[in-house]
Design a protein that fits this description.
This protein is α/β, with parallel strands linked by helices. The protein is built from eleven helices and twelve strands. It has one domain: Aldolase class I (TIM Barrel, Alpha-Beta Barrel). The two termini are 36 Å apart. It binds S-adenosylmethionine and iron/sulfur cluster (SF4). The site of iron/sulfur cluster (SF4) has 13 residues, from helix 11.
Length: 331
């Protein structure tokens, strides 16, 4: 039987889906949201059934890894029921979640039991006041307890995600790395991306390149290139003598679009083909107009792939190229 797969005009095979399940969040990280956010009305957000239909169509077309994101995915009601359904899909090689960690103390064992294999947990500072300044919420202790609960729950890998800003947490790079190493976790250091118009800080003044972060680490720890390839904008290094891998996510200083294997679906059901572009296909309109029509959905996905751009064009300046917050598209 002919089994079409998702391949874009540049020959890249799409095997990875980031699925955002909500645009809401219990934090207000300054690089991601304003303090007063207007969230989409609930009716505009894909239902759990619709989210499953989208995931199912992608799996049918060759997607083998799904990452659930948001907003904060764990604030979505009954998310566990969606995860359990996806967790039963044998075709999936990887089911992962990106979370701010605030609910993990309670939910980690249930996530693991539902079939989630890997977690990314955001952590920008180990100092209470700084953490509160980053997230606008005084919840460091809760997140650290969540990280402990996740370790105890037996996930295959847990990775911390740290957005590095000059003058705000760049002096904590080694502390964060050693926190990860002491716990057998991986860690990625992320350059801030120009997504969404925020007023809390000047992105140019706080920009800290991955090269600077790597140099800081190299002063104390030897790093060797890891052969792990993700098909995304991140490259991994092994800390010599440790289980920890360090990733650098550098949309500014490097361009890895050539082997991009991923697409995103927003909580509102927009298929976003590239984080740096505004091309999007409204899957929600299609699903609601033709409920249960799996063939039509598959056809629309195959057609949409023809629009996947060759590369993004983020530049390191203050101009906001894409007026869309990360919490809408999912990080
Ligand atoms: N709420 C979850 C969390 O914080 O992990 C999942 C969604 S969040 C949008 C996913 C990731 O995107 C987080 O690691 C966050 O630090 C990162 N992020 C958000 N806005 C960003 C920006 N403007 N530049 C770079 N990373 C960003
Ligand atoms: Fe929420 Fe994650 Fe955005 Fe922070 S980065 S505001 S935790 S969605």
């Amino acid at each position: 039987m002919h089994n079409p797969q998702l391949v874009d005009p540049f020959g890249r095979r799409i095997t990875y889906l980031r699925l955002s399940v909500t645009d809401r969040c219990d934090f207000r990280c300054t690089y991601c949201m304003g303090e007063d956010m207007v969230f989409a009305p609930r009716a505009q957000i894909l239902s759990l059934e619709e989210l499953y239909a989208v995931a199912d169509a992608f799996i049918g077309l060759g997607v083998r890894r799904i990452r659930i994101t948001g907003g904060e995915p764990l604030v979505r009601k009954n998310l566990l029921s969606l995860l359990a359904r996806l967790g039963r899909r044998d075709e999936l090689e990887d089911l992962a979640i990106t979370t701010n960690g605030s609910q993990l103390a309670e939910l980690a064992p249930q996530l693991r039991a539902a079939g989630v294999a890997r977690l990314n947990i955001s952590l920008d500072s180990l100092r209470r006041e700084r953490f509160a300044a980053f997230t606008r919420r005084d919840r460091l202790e809760q997140v650290l307890a969540g990280i402990d609960a996740a370790r105890a729950a037996g996930f295959r890998r847990i990775k911390l995600n740290t957005v590095v800003q000059k003058g705000r947490n760049d002096d904590e790079v080694l502390d964060l790395l050693e926190f990860a190493m002491a716990r057998g976790l991986d860690i990625s250091f992320i350059e801030e991306m120009p997504l969404g118009d925020i007023s809390s800080h000047s992105r140019q003044a706080t920009f800290c390149s991955s090269d600077e972060v790597r140099e800081r680490i190299a002063q104390r720890h030897a790093l060797v290139r890891s052969n792990r390839a993700t098909g995304g904008p991140s490259r991994y290094w092994q800390v010599v003598g440790s289980a920890t891998q360090v990733g650098f996510i550098s949309p500014h200083s490097h361009n890895f679009c050539g082997d991009c294997n991923r697409v995103r679906v927003t909580a509102e059901g927009k298929l976003v083909l590239c984080l740096g572009h505004d091309h999007a296909l409204d899957l929600k309109a299609l699903i609601r107009r033709y409920p249960g029509d799996r063939e039509r959905l598959r056809g629309a996905l195959l057609d949409a792939l023809r629009l996947k751009p060759e590369r993004h064009h983020f530049a390191n300046d203050e101009q906001v190229q894409v007026v869309r917050f990360m919490s809408m598209t999912g990080g």
